[in-house]
Specification:
By secondary structure, this protein is an alpha/beta fold. It is built from 16 helices and eleven strands. The chain folds into two domains: 220 residues, Periplasmic binding protein-like II (D-Maltodextrin-Binding Protein, domain 2); 141 residues, Periplasmic binding protein-like II (D-Maltodextrin-Binding Protein, domain 2, 3-Layer(aba) Sandwich), CATH 3.40.190. α7 runs parallel beside α9, α8 crosses α16 and α9 runs parallel beside α16.
Length: 388
């Protein structure tokens, strides 16, 4: 879900409470400023609003990030939501009510579409992310870092995780999976009812469609998906509602492929018994969509100093290395590893020969996400052409 155009006018005109002064706004532009930020953050409870449906991410935060924050005197509280837009709507509602400071949302794990709309509505704290002490370990010249779904970050959000769009197949049922969208269509012709994907605007289904658009162009991609529809599971009259339902269908051998923006999802599903041991990950030859996950701070956040401290912790090399460990999350780091000393750099070397994880070479060429404004347009076109 993304916010409607009402968001763009939600924050205008209210002047019932004065904006915070510079002295009330922590910054991280120098060591002395950061020392003051740490001092102000001590004793604060930071409420981090984030998607709560990934148990592994929740466990990583609770077992590693929360204790690291506690060492600095900051209490980190997860506020799980089903949709990032819930957090953004809270910020909008508070600003409509004239709550220009002391807001209840301190930190948000934001997606590209909601970041773009919130940025246009002036919801986010400005000019902070590149001044975090650990931001010097990030390559801000990398376009997958300095833009979010085509929208310039402009210091309003900080990266903390990576995502790669991959597929899963069962090597016992399908020794050679399709490697292009054309091959997927041919596979469906030969194996009717064995292919499906979640219906957009589901995040995973939308990514599947966007990757097709990236590989083939919009008109050709929609033509192919229209041709694919009657060959799908349930003859295309029904779609899985989300990634979890697709995983269940794949695990129950009702369909031959699953997909996710989580590069470690096959390993996780096998460990949980959802996928068979013979499940394997793969990508298309045309490249895999990649994006970066960010956190942002509302400009009316009640505990800005604490939010800055947590955002900086999320970039700390040891916490990034733990997150990249396949036994924890297996999610690629956002750090430029070449900027780390040798001992720290070695922690990011892949420490497993797991058949359920792809190496950097196997992941192949990365495809940058389309601009945020194109996402709902493509989803609408998919509904018009394919779902009709």
């Amino acid at each position: 879900m993304v916010l409607s155009a009402v968001l763009l006018t939600a924050c205008g005109g209210e002047q019932t409470t004065a904006a915070p002064t510079a002295s009330a706004t922590p910054t991280a532009t120098a060591d002395s400023d950061w020392a003051r930020t740490l001092e102000e953050a001590e004793g604060q409870t930071v409420r981090w609003w984030l998607f709560g449906g990934d148990e592994r991410v929740n466990r990583y935060i609770d077992e590693y990030v929360v204790p690291a924050a506690e060492e600095l005197g900051v209490t980190l509280e997860r506020v799980p939501v089903d949709d990032t837009a819930d957090a953004v709507q809270r910020v909008v509602a508070e600003k409509r009510a004239g709550r220009r400071q002391g807001g209840s949302v301190d930190l948000v794990w934001i997606n590209g579409e909601n970041f773009a709309q919130g940025k246009e509505a002036d919801l986010w704290l400005e000019d902070w992310s590149r001044d975090l002490p650990n931001a010097e370990l990030v390559d801000w010249e990398d376009p997958t870092i300095n833009t979010d779904f085509g929208v310039p970050v402009d210091g309003q959000e900080s990266p903390w995780s990576r995502a790669v769009f991959i597929f899963a197949y069962d090597q016992q049922r399908t020794p050679e999976p399709p490697r292009t969208y054309d091959e997927l269509l041919e596979y469906a012709r030969d194996n009717p009812g064995r292919v499906t994907y979640p219906a957009p605007p589901d995040f995973t289904g939308s990514a599947f469609v966007r990757q097709a658009v990236y590989a083939l162009g919009e008109e050709e991609a929609l033509r192919l998906l229209e041709e694919l529809k009657p060959l799908q599971w349930r003859e295309g009259e029904a779609f899985p509602s989300n990634e979890a339902e697709l995983n269940r269908l794949f695990g129950d051998a009702q369909v031959d492929f699953a997909m996710s923006y989580d590069p470690a999802f096959v390993e996780t599903a096998v460990a949980k018994g959802i996928f068979p041991d013979s499940a394997r990950p793969f990508t298309f030859e045309t490249g895999a969509l990649r994006n970066t996950s960010y956190v942002t701070i509302p400009d009316n956040a009640g505990r800005r100093a604490g939010a800055l401290v947590v955002a900086n912790l999320l970039l700390r090399p040891d916490l990034q290395a733990i997150k990249a460990d396949p036994e924890v999350l297996g999610i690629p780091t956002v750090l430029d590893v070449s900027r780390l000393p040798g001992e720290q750099r070695s922690r990011f070397e892949q420490r497993t020969n797991s058949p359920y994880l792809l190496t950097s070479e196997e992941l192949g060429e990365g495809l940058r996400e389309l601009p945020a404004h194109q996402v709902p347009e493509i989803e609408d076109r998919w509904e018009e052409v394919v779902l009709r």
